[in-house]
């Protein structure tokens, strides 16, 4: 699940972990009530600082995706479908923002971008 | 106790041209401190000084609050050490090596040592001298971890090991650190490895400690700026300008340190545009830091 | 701690200890056998004493050899690792050295006991002529002291860096070589004799190696 974590990326490691888990929860890969790997297990598996994992879990807890139960572990909370849809929408914005930034850097205009999207999807966009 | 390892104005001379000067290490308790530096910069010598294997010419050393070398024999019971070169008796088997070590460390955890033996897939009855480099590395890490120390001092523990062994060794290390709030002082060439888990970083070059900061500050603080219309002689910079070069035409690339996002306001002046702020990964940052620190003679 | 150091020591020197014990046991017995005549008549005192004396030369040689080799094997593992392991162990250096010394000395108890047993067996089974007596215990005690003195001396030399130990042993070898060359060239230069007088006759522990080692005496 975490193969794409890249220490060289500008995004802090805890944010990358949290992001990956958020996607998994939103997509239903991790069902409500499921236990996330223990901090110890994940830190060892990813060869990362346990503090990094703890921060990722805390962020997810703050956002309401998981709850950390003392002594028992971290568990996925019941997220309403609207919550998951909201998260997907958020991910979509992130993707688009990234694409627009890259396009701007490469000098690709908006219309050129739209044409490329159309070609890839095979659907006409106006 | 403030720091797991602390040195103050440490001086040492080995050969005519090699000396360590004014070293002020500060490794906070519970930190995973990455110690970087090119070959010959004095990393191993520093570690030897910290453990009391060498006597400094001047300066103070303290480990877990105790003075080195005065209190070395007692406090070293709390320190797990993995040296660069295998240092164990070649005639003893793996199990005998563990038994020998266990006799000296009251905090030794046999059940965990057994689990690590299985995890590392080590052949118990093989003499240490006949093990492969990777297996020797695993044994040394096993000894240091099963001791359950408060401080781990690791001198290039994964050097020369294949990627699979490296992962196993680092996994076990981080498993231990997750179990208890141990401090880790690890020197390595493999910067990308350290990047994953160190929260502090110290860079050594030519016997001097040139920087010692939290990892996030180091990684985030070094940036490449692409600027057009850059002022020829910049004044009152909020950041540290390490170097600048002409990229093309009116565009320059500046290498800076201790950058913070709000500093882009500095470029809000007529004729100047900050077109891009580029991140450097740890390795690039390290290389650039050394290059600029060494200055014109590099 | 002593147990693991003893085991470590044993692993390095077990061949030495076993061979040394065999030699130690055999020496007194063989020295008395050598005095027996083909017709198994009782041994003549003068001849017996001569044989015992000449075989007796081997005791100090065996003692010195055992002391030297066990001392070397005590420090070999530490030297190989440049003492890094020992110096990082949470024991004071003096205590570690003492543990190593004790382990070596304990292992040397085997050949010492072998000499004692061999001497007792030899003197009790041989027909000693009137006027002479067997001194098995005295011999064994002297052997014990000689072994331990040799061990202590070479232990101290080896405890330093490998370089110092090498220098000392090279010096000893050098002196021997000079003597041999002088003898071959028939030059009257008794270097070893002079040094011997200096080192061994001076009242000190090394004096134990001089003189006659008599299993049977008047």
Question: Could you characterize the architecture of this molecule?
Answer:
The complex is a heterotrimer of chains A (126), B (298) and C (218). Chain A is mainly alpha-helical and 126 residues long. Chain A has 2 domains: 13-76, Arc Repressor Mutant, subunit A; 81-121. Chain A has 5 helices and 2 strands, in the order αααββαα. A two-stranded antiparallel ribbon of chain A has the order 1-2. The longest helix of chain A has 26 residues, at 81-106. The model of chain A has no long low-confidence stretch (mean pLDDT 86). With 298 residues, chain B is of the alpha/beta class. Chain B has 2 domains: 3-217, 3-Layer(aba) Sandwich (Rossmann fold), CATH 3.40.50; 223-279. Chain B has 9 helices and 15 strands. Chain B has helices at residues 43-50, 72-75, 94-102, 110-119, 133-146, 163-179, 191-197, 215-221, 282-294; strands at residues 3-13, 19-23, 26-28, 32-36, 58-63, 66-68, 79-82, 151-155, 183-187, 200-205, 208-214, 223-228, 240-248, 251-257, 273-279. In chain B, a hairpin with a 2-residue loop joins β13 and β14 (251-257). Chain B is elongated. In chain C, α1 (2-33) packs antiparallel against α3, α3 runs antiparallel to α5 (93-125) and α5 runs antiparallel to α6 (136-159). Chain C has helices at 2-33, 45-56, 58-80, 84-88, 93-125, 136-159, 162-184, 191-201; strands at 133-134, 216-217. Helix content of chain C is 75%, strand content 2%. The N and C termini of chain C lie far apart (48 Å). The mean pLDDT of chain C is 82. Chain C is flat, with a radius of gyration of 20 Å. Chain C has one domain (2-161, 209-217). The longest helix of chain C has 33 residues, at 93-125. The chains are: A mainly alpha (126), B alpha/beta (298), C mainly alpha (218). The B-C interface holds B 51-53, 73-77, 79, 81, 83, 86-92, 96, 99-100, 103-105 and C 1, 3-4, 7-8, 11-12, 77, 80-82, 84-85, 87-93.
What keyword list fits this structure?
heterotrimer; A: 126 residues; mainly alpha; 2 domains; two-stranded antiparallel ribbon; 2 strands; 6% strand; globular; C: mainly alpha; 8 helices
């Amino acid at each position: 699940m975490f193969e794409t974590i890249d220490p060289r990326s500008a995004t802090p490691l805890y944010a990358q972990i949290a992001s990956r888990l958020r996607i998994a929860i939103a997509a239903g890969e991790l069902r409500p009530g499921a236990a996330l790997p223990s901090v110890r297990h994940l830190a060892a598996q990813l060869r990362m600082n346990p503090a990094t994992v703890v921060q990722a879990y805390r962020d997810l807890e703050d956002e309401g995706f998981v709850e950390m139960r003392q002594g028992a572990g971290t568990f996925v909370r019941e997220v309403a479908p609207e919550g998951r849809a909201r998260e997907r929408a958020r991910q979509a914005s992130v993707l688009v923002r990234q694409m627009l930034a890259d396009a701007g850097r490469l000098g690709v205009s908006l219309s050129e971008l739209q044409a490329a999207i159309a070609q890839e999807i095979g659907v006409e966009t106006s | 106790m403030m720091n797991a390892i602390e040195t103050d104005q440490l001086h040492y001379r080995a050969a005519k041209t090699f000396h360590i000067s004014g070293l002020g290490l500060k490794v906070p308790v519970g930190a995973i401190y990455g110690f970087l530096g090119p070959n010959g910069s004095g990393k191993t010598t520093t570690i030897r000084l910290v453990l009391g294997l060498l006597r400094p010419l001047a300066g103070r050393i303290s480990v877990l609050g105790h003075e080195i070398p005065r209190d070395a024999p007692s406090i070293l019971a709390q320190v797990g050490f993995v040296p660069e070169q295998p240092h164990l008796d070649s005639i003893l088997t793996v199990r005998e090596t563990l038994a020998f070590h266990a006799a000296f460390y009251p905090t030794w955890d046999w059940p965990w040592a057994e689990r690590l033996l299985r995890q590392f897939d080590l052949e118990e009855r093989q003499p240490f001298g006949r093990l492969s480099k990777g297996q020797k590395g695993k044994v040394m890490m096993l000894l240091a971890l099963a001791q359950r120390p408060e401080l781990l001092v690791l001198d290039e523990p994964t050097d020369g090991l294949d990627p699979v062994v490296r992962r196993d060794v680092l996994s076990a290390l981080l498993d231990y650190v997750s179990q208890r709030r141990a401090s880790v002082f690890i020197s390595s060439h493999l910067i990308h490895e350290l990047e994953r888990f160190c929260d502090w970083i110290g860079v050594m070059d030519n016997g001097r400690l040139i920087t010692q900061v939290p990892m996030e500050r180091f990684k985030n603080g070094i940036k490449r700026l692409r600027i057009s219309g850059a002022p020829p002689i910049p004044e009152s910079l909020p950041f540290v300008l390490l170097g600048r070069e002409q990229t093309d035409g009116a565009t320059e690339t500046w290498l800076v340190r201790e950058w913070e996002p709000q500093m882009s306001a500095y470029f809000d002046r007529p004729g100047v545009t900050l077109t891009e702020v580029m991140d450097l990964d740890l390795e690039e940052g390290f290389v650039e830091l050394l290059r600029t620190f060494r200055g014109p003679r590099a | 701690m002593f147990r693991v150091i003893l085991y470590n020591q044993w692993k390095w020197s077990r061949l030495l200890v076993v061979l040394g014990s065999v030699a130690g046991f055999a020496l007194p017995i063989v020295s008395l056998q050598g005095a027996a005549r083909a017709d198994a008549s009782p041994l003549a005192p003068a001849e017996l004493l001569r044989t015992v004396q000449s075989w007796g030369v081997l005791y100090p040689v065996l003692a010195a050899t055992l002391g030297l080799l066990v001392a070397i094997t005590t420090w070999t593992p530490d030297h190989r690792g440049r003492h890094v392991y020992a110096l990082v162990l949470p024991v004071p250096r003096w205590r570690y050295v003492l543990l190593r010394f004790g382990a070596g000395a304990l292992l040397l108890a085997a050949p010492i006991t072998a000499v004692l047993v061999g001497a007792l067996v030899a003197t009790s089974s041989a027909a000693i002529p009137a006027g002479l007596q067997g001194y098995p215990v005295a011999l064994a005690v002297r052997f014990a002291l000689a072994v331990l003195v040799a061990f202590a001396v070479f232990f101290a030399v080896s405890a330093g860096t490998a370089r110092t130990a090498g220098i000392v042993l090279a010096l000893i070898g050098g002196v021997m070589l000079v003597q041999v060359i002088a003898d071959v060239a028939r030059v009257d230069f008794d270097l070893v004799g002079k040094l011997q007088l200096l080192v061994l006759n001076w009242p000190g522990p090394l004096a134990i190696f001089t003189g006659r080692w008599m299993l049977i005496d008047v």
